[in-house]
Amino acid sequence: MALINDNFLKLPGSYLFSDIARKISKYREENPDKQLIRLGIGDVTRPLPEACIEAMHKATDELSQKATFKGYGPEQGYDFLISAIIKNDFEPRGIHLSYSEIFINDGAKSDTGNIGDIFTVDNHIAVTDPIYPVYIDSNVMAGRTGSLNADGKWSNVVYMECNEENNFIPQLPDKKVDIIYLCYPNNPTGTTLTKEELKKWVDYALENDSLIFFDAAYEAFIREDNVPHSIYEIEGAKKCAIEFRSFSKTAGFTGVRCGYTVIPDDVTALSSNGERIQLNKLWLRRQCTKFNGTSYITQRAAEAIYSEEGKKQVKANIDYYLGNAQIMREGLIKAGLKVYGGINSPYLWLKTPEGTDSWTFFDKLLHEANVVGTPGVGFGPSGEGFLRLTAFGEREDCIEAMRRIELYI
Ligand code: PLP
Predict the structure, then answer these.
(1) Which atom of ligand 1 lies nearest, measured to the CA of 42?
(2) How much distance in Å is there from the Cα of 7 to the middle of ligand 1?
(3) Nearest residue CA, atom 2 of ligand 1?
(4) What is 95-152 written as a DSSP string?
(5) Separation of 51 CA from ligand 1 center, angstroms?
């Protein structure tokens, strides 16, 4: 008889975005003439940069010829892409990585969700609250989180609250933890950490022999100088941090699927008999067993992001979204609302007016302004009283949404 992994049964039944979708379709059925503006889900809307399209066509042609056909590629990724990543994303910031320290994948969700495979269930994890839900749910599946309390928190997880009082800067945990998840620029709050603030975390990890899983999926949106693009800008991070990157929001790859994970050779953890094990080697073993590489066409498209033309086109797309974010920030402030993020990030974290809870405000926006956001509480207990808006929409829609919010809220 097959027995299931009971940990899956601990996961709360419904998924945030399905609840939202249900509310939207009900509203649409009842109000077919209303034009909804959807600023909820964090998916891009602009097409792929032309340089990526050209590279994909070229790669497709190569696969059509016997002489240039490619089958399985290296599990860790092709050298041409790894080389472009090292030269463009790291060397200009004084970070030196070797090819084997980079793992190309099919997007950051897979690796942020799967990295737990190489750690025991006994590790104590700490997460910021609110949080990108994958970090928690993947740990629930592994059996690392204990039980769900009435306050929406898991009993074995350390939550580091990010709220207005601490300016969305998490405080170091007051007890020792083994693994810390950080995501900057942050989803959902759109806020960032300065180099000095991130250094405190690296120092904590080095002092306590902890690991940091640093999700930099929104790195390309950073525009301010003192905001680190990579955790390896901080001294010592190569000994204690794994970094996750994604081309999804950088270059519109949400449907194409490509990202990468950096595991420096010096990052280690203990085996049960006290031996220090290189995580890079363990992850390579895991990947070679469970992952057969990202497609050649996709990796050629990702490489094209780093061409001169590609860089310009990517920047133009991101500038467009950041332009939306600025319009939205100004519009929300004009409407008398308090808003965070949206400067080095496509996310705006909006405080609901007069203590309204997240879902009530979501309903009000949907019904009165016909604008769809994401209730902050869906990202964790500290998200209660907030709503996330994304700047990934069309410019006209963002302008119209702000006009409606000013009118109705
Ligand atoms: N990490 C964060 C913080 C995200 O917000 C997302 C997607 O929304 C991901 C990772 C996953 O990105 P990908 O499309 O590369 O799987």
Answers:
(1) 8
(2) 23
(3) 217
(4) ----GGGEEEES-HHHHHHHGGGGS-TT--EEEEES--HHHHHHHHHHT-S--B-TTS
(5) 23
Residue identified by tokens 């049960």 is: 272
Render pLDDT for 245-270 as a digit per residue (tens, 0 to 9). Answer: 999 999 999 999 999 999 999 999 99
Kindly tell me the burial class for residue 20, based on how many C-beta atoms sit within 10 Å of its own C-beta (0-12, 13-18, 19 or more).
buried
Q: Whose CA is nearest to atom 8 of ligand 1?
A: 42
- Give the per-residue pLDDT at 355: 85
- CA distance from start to end of the chain: 57
Q: From the alpha carbon of 186, which atom of ligand 1 is closest?
A: 3
- In this structure, the strands spanning 157-161 and 179-183 are unpaired
As beta bridge partners, residue 179 has 125, 211
User: Rounded to the nearest whole angstrom, what is the distance from the C-alpha of residue 136 to the centroid of ligand 1?
Assistant: 14
Q: At residue 387, what are phi and psi to the nearest 5 degrees? A: -140, 140
**What is the reported pTM?**
0.97
- C-alpha distances in angstroms, 210 versus 173, 175, 249, 273, 400? 12, 12, 29, 18, 47
Q: Cα separation of 152 and 331, whole Å? A: 32
With a cut of 90, say whether residue 409 has pLDDT above it.
Answer: no
Is residue 340 within a helix (H) or strand (E), and if so which, with residue range?
Answer: strand 339-341
List all residues 6 or more positions away from 286 whose beta carbon is below 8 Å from its beta carbon.
114, 117, 118
